[in-house]
Design a protein that fits this description.
By secondary structure, this protein is an all-alpha fold. The chain is built from 9 helices and no strands. Helix 6 crosses helix 8.
Amino acid sequence: MIEDDELNAWFVNEVLPLERSLTSYIRRNWRVPEDVLELRQDIYEHLLIGARRAVPINARTYVYTVARNHLINCTRRARIVPIDAVADLESVSPDMDMFEAERALTARDELRYVKQGIDKLPPKCREVILLQKIEGMTDREAAASLGISVETVRRQIKLGMKALFDHMAGGSGQIVRKRYRRRTRREVQP
């Protein structure tokens, strides 16, 4: 067993400096933002209980292993609902999401509709939209991948997103380019 002073010193010197990155890790891996601070406190508790037996050599690895395992266990517990908890319909919590399936179907329909809008776009514009909005590439990465300039990528994104917004609002979803009036020879000559 480790003495309290040694355990506290280890926690302050080794674990607390990881707090910001641990919080970010929890946010990235947990869907409910309101639970992040509570989960972090639970992880701290598990860390201290485990370290009471022996202080880990590599604190960072230990912290993230405990965090990962705790999040996995919380996810498993959230998915398992005991049958007696919902046996009586009167006992169903009003907070329970009764429309989850309906929202999933609606989201799926909206996704199909967005895909139809993307399919209407010209090939180059479609490629740029997919690379940036679906795969998460930056302007430079998309430009390098397609062999075009960054300015062309930005122009295609602007035109493509306007067309998608138009499609989602019930319009044609076609790219609308500005029409410039042609100059006559008299206007060009000084």
